[in-house]
C-alpha cells in the first residue's frame, strides 16, 4: 500500500510541474501577442541602431556547476536585439577543475568545454540562436595552481592536498554511481536552439523573452545517455553611457533524462542571474556577474541545494569582433559546484550596415 501512495504522489507532482510549465507558456504567449498587436517592440530609440562597434551584451558564458553545465541552464543575455539582419558567430573554450568531498558523494576531475554557435537577427523583433556544447574530461593541469592559490591565501583544501593530482573519479554510492579513470570520455554533447522576441526597446531599457530547446546525447562511455529539456526566460538590460546592467529569470523543464546511475533529477528548476558591464576605456570592458541556480538533484544532498557562482571578466572590442577572458568561481555552497573555471572566447558580427 505504501508503494501505491508514493507512486500516486509522484504522479500528482509531475502533473503540477506540467501545469506550471503550461501556465508559464501561456504568460509568455500572451506577452508576445500583446506587444505584437501594439507594435511596441521596437522604439525609435531602439538599441538596434548602428554603433561604432557592436554591443555584444553579457560575456559568452555558461553555468559551470557539474550538473547544471551538462543540462539546459538559462544564460545571461542582453535585453536588446542586435542590428536587424546581423549575424554573429562565436566560440569559447573553458577549462574547469571539480573537487567535491562530502558524506554523500565525491568528485575529483577536470572538465573542459568547447562552445560554438551562431545567432541571427531575423527581424527587428526576432532573434534566433543555435549552438553546440561539448563537455569532455581531459587533463588541464589546474590542480597545482589551485593548491598554490589556496596556500598563498591560507584557504583550506578540504582534502584536495591528501590525494594525487590529475584524477578522474566520481562516486555517489546512494545512487549507484561510481566512475573511475574516465579521462578522455565525453561528459555531454548537446545542441541548444534559442529564440528571442523583443518586447521593449527604448533608450535606456530593453526587455526580451526567450525560449530554448536542448538535446544532449552521449552514445557510449561512462556517461552514456540522453536528455531533452526546454526553458523560458525574461531578459532585462539597463544602459546609460558606459554602463550596462543585466538580469534575467528563467525556468527549465526536463521532459526526459537517462543519465549515469539512479540520480533523481529535479524536473522543474528556476534560475536568476545579474551582471554589470563597464567600458572603462574605449573598446575595453570589465564584467561582473552573479548567478543563482536551483539544485538539479531531487534529493537531500548538497546537489539539491542552490548553486551560487560569481564571474569576473574582460572584453576587448574591435570593429566587428571581440575577445573575451573570464573566470567563474563557486561561492556560498562549496560542495555542489565547480571549484574554478577559466575561459577564452571570440565573437564576430556580420553587420547589415
Compose a concise summary of this entry.
The chain has 353 residues and is mainly β. The chain has three helices and 14 strands.
Largest β-sheet summary: 12 strands, antiparallel, barrel
Strand order of the largest sheet: 1-2-3-6-7-8-9-10-11-12-13-14
Total number of helical segments?
Answer: 3
The overall pLDDT, averaged over residues, is: 81
Low-pLDDT segments, ≥5 res: 1-17, 19-24, 30-51
Identify the overall geometry. Answer: globular
CA-based gyration radius: 21 Å
The succession of helices and strands, N to C, reads: HHEEEHEEEEEEEEEEE
Beta-strand content: over 45%
Helix content: 10-25%
The beta-strand count equals 14
How far apart lie the N and C ends?
69 Å
> Pairing-aware structural class of the strands and helices?
mainly beta
InterPro entries: Autotransporte_beta_dom_sf, DUF3187
Protein name: DUF3187 family protein
Amino acid at each position: 500500500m505504501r508503494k501505491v501512495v508514493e507512486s500516486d504522489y509522484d504522479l500528482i507532482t509531475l502533473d503540477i510541474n506540467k501545469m506550471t510549465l503550461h501556465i508559464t507558456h501561456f504568460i509568455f504567449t500572451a506577452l508576445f501577442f500583446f506587444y505584437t498587436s501594439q507594435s511596441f517592440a521596437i522604439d525609435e530609440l531602439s538599441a538596434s541602431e548602428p554603433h561604432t562597434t557592436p554591443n555584444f551584451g553579457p560575456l559568452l558564458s555558461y553555468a559551470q556547476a557539474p550538473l547544471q553545465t551538462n543540462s539546459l541552464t538559462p544564460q545571461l543575455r542582453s535585453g536588446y536585439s542586435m542590428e536587424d539582419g546581423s549575424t554573429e558567430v562565436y566560440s569559447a573554450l573553458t577549462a574547469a577543475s571539480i573537487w567535491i568531498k562530502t558524506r554523500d558523494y565525491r568528485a575529483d576531475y577536470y572538465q573542459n568545454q568547447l562552445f560554438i554557435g551562431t545567432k541571427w537577427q531575423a527581424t527587428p523583433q526576432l532573434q534566433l540562436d543555435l549552438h553546440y556544447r561539448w563537455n569532455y574530461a581531459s587533463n588541464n593541469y589546474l590542480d597545482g595552481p589551485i593548491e598554490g592559490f589556496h596556500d598563498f591565501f591560507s584557504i583550506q583544501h578540504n582534502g584536495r592536498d591528501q590525494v594525487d593530482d590529475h584524477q578522474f573519479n566520481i562516486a555517489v554510492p546512494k545512487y549507484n554511481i561510481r566512475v573511475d579513470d574516465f579521462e578522455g570520455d565525453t561528459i555531454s554533447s548537446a545542441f541548444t536552439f534559442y529564440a528571442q522576441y523583443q518586447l521593449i526597446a527604448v533608450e535606456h531599457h530593453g526587455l526580451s523573452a526567450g525560449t530554448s530547446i536542448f538535446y544532449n546525447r552521449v552514445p557510449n562511455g561512462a556517461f552514456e545517455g540522453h536528455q531533452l529539456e526546454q526553458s523560458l526566460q525574461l531578459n532585462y538590460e539597463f544602459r546609460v553611457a558606459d554602463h550596462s546592467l543585466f538580469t534575467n529569470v528563467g525556468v527549465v523543464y526536463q521532459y526526459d533524462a537517462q543519465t549515469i546511475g539512479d540520480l533523481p533529477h529535479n524536473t522543474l528548476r528556476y534560475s536568476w542571474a545579474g551582471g554589470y558591464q563597464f567600458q572603462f576605456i574605449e573598446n575595453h570592458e570589465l564584467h561582473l556577474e552573479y548567478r543563482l541556480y536551483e539544485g538539479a538533484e531531487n534529493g537531500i544532498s548538497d546537489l539539491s541545494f542552490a548553486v551560487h557562482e560569481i564571474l569576473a571578466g574582460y572584453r576587448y572590442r574591435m570593429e566587428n569582433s571581440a575577445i573575451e577572458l573570464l573566470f567563474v568561481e563557486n561561492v556560498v555552497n562549496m560542495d555542489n559546484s565547480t571549484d574554478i573555471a577559466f575561459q577564452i572566447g571570440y565573437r564576430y558580427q556580420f553587420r547589415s550596415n
